[in-house]
Amino acid sequence: MWIYLDNRFVKESDALVSVFDHGFLYGDGIYETVRSYGSRIFMQDQHLARLRRSAVAIGLKIPDRDWPTLLRESMERNEVGNERTDAYIRITISRGSGDIGLDPALCPHPTIVIITKPLKPPSAEQYQEGVSLIVAKTRRNLPSALDPQIKATNFLNNILAKREALAVGAFDSVLLNWESHLTECTVSNLFFVRANRLCTPALSCGILDGITRGIILTLARQEQIPIEEGKFTNKDLSQADECFLSNTTMEVMPATILDGRPIGAGKPGPLTQKLLRLFVAHRTGFVES
Q1: What is the helix (H) or strand (E) element at residue 26, kind and residue range?
Q2: Per-residue pLDDT reduced to its tens digit, 60-101
Q3: Are 152 and 42 a contacting pair, CB within 8 Å?
Q4: Could you report the per-residue pLDDT of 120-134, keeping only the tens digit for each?
Q5: Interatomic CA distance for residues 251 and 127, integer angstroms
Q6: H or E segment and range at residue 258
Q7: Separation of alpha carbons 77 and 72, rounded Å
């Protein structure tokens, strides 16, 4: 595997980051996960714009790079992003290496890493049967303490919630916020359907404005599907007719079990399946255009 590190591509065995890197010491960094459909990188400009937004939010100056060319070269070097294999691409930028201490000025140069490998999509069975969720005891970070719009490399909050899910054999956890309102799962946005209305937590609940989430809302509006972005509770979710998750790699993933009990009929619902078809048609059009 070829890794882009700082200013050049190196083999995986030579991709070494200092133990004094503040990304390692303090989780001081940002990232984006991008994917391709064949050779075309999906929503590349939007992901790069969000990366820059995260950098601004933490006062991190991203070095000038021709990012589209780097991402293309990374796929070519690793022989992914072609007619055989879609690409999974992760861009990570940390504060960089510096003396021990929290002062960002200790790090004169950010560390840049691009990892590209074959995308491993969820199984067909998961889309057909849906996945299981629990409501985690771990609460989502308070937005006034850590802005959820920053895609930070500090993921301990999410990891704790993921451990709760794994401990009981669930696919993932739903996190509540400081007011016991629904937010999102550990790496995905949350949607549910109630009385034919598509519901999803509002950004003000303390969630990331997922790029796939935005596409789904746009597609729903085009189809004149009623939408409610608001504050919802665990009870609202437990009484839902359908539920699904969204992110870059899963697209639209049905969720059919919550805390060991069926959601609705216990199988992917009609609106979930319709939105998945709409999303597939949307990205298929992107690939073919």
Answers
A1: helix 22-26
A2: 999 999 999 999 999 999 999 999 999 999 999 999 999 999
A3: no
A4: 999 999 999 999 999
A5: 10
A6: strand 251-258
A7: 9
